[in-house]
Amino acid sequence: MSTKKPVPRFTVITLGVNDIRASIAFYEALGFARKMNATGEAVAFFDTGGTVIALFPWDQLAGDAKLPDQPRPKTFRGTTLAWNCNSTEEVDAALDFAISCGASLLKPAHKTDYGGYSGYFADPDNHTWEVVVAPRIEVGEDRRVHLPD
């Protein structure tokens, strides 16, 4: 038996969706590049620059995890996805763009108590996204978030 500790990795966020065609169209409209198109509408993968967003039919995802499909929550799920930006102008532009692609505005962009600036939108399945610029957190040309030590 090996005593070597596995290397932790956060690689994919899989979102359960009600209408995979509509969700694929939404994430493509946001500008995420779809990969592995051969999967058709069974599952959709999008390159985000560091991790991957996967879209999977909600009922099948629940079944795969051995969880009940119903009731589906219509309230906050305790999780947000984040779109980090480098300026307040970029936050405003990204939030406006997401809304133009079919997102629902949850909270307009505003100054935060920690010195940042953020707003929230929901995708077509009510997955919550924060669009934010935060002090000391930068997004590089590689689209990855760079955190200070």
UniProtKB/TrEMBL annotation:
InterPro entries xrefs: Glyas_Bleomycin-R_OHBP_Dase, Glyas_Fos-R_dOase_dom, VOC_core
Lyase found in the keyword field: yes
Keyword Lyase carried by entry: yes
An example Gene Ontology molecular-function term: lyase activity
Keywords carried by this UniProt record: Lyase
A Pfam family: Glyoxalase
Residue span, VOC domain: 9-134
Protein name: Lactoylglutathione lyase
